C-alpha cells in the first residue's frame, strides 16, 4: 500500500550571476545563516511587502469620513521631534554627548 503524504516543501531553482551569489553568501554569513535560509527569508519578506501594499482595506462610510477628517486636519507638533530638532548636531560647537 502506497502512502501519499502531502508535500510540505517545494524546491525553487534559479540561475544567478557569480557576483550575485557572492553578495548573497557574504550577507548570509554576516547574519550567520545559510544561503538557503537567507534567500528564503528575503523572498518571503519581499512577498509579504507586496501583498500588504496591495491589501484591500474596507471600512464603513462613517469610518472613512473620520479617516479623511484626520488626514485633512492640520498637523500638530510632536514633542520628541521638536526636542530632537533643537539639539545641536554632534559637529556643532556646544554639543554635549551626555544629553
UniProtKB/TrEMBL annotation:
<keyword id="KW-0238">DNA-binding</keyword>
<keyword id="KW-0678">Repressor</keyword>
<protein>
    <submittedName>
        <fullName>DUF1778 domain-containing protein</fullName>
    </submittedName>
</protein>
<dbReference type="GO" id="GO:0003677">
    <property type="term" value="F:DNA binding"/>
</dbReference>
<comment type="similarity">
    <text>Belongs to the TacA antitoxin family.</text>
</comment>
<keyword id="KW-1277">Toxin-antitoxin system</keyword>
<keyword id="KW-0805">Transcription regulation</keyword>
<dbReference type="InterPro" id="IPR010985">
    <property type="entry name" value="Ribbon_hlx_hlx"/>
</dbReference>
<dbReference type="InterPro" id="IPR014795">
    <property type="entry name" value="TacA_1-like"/>
</dbReference>
<dbReference type="GO" id="GO:0006355">
    <property type="term" value="P:regulation of DNA-templated transcription"/>
</dbReference>
<keyword id="KW-0804">Transcription</keyword>
<dbReference type="Pfam" id="PF08681">
    <property type="entry name" value="TacA1"/>
</dbReference>
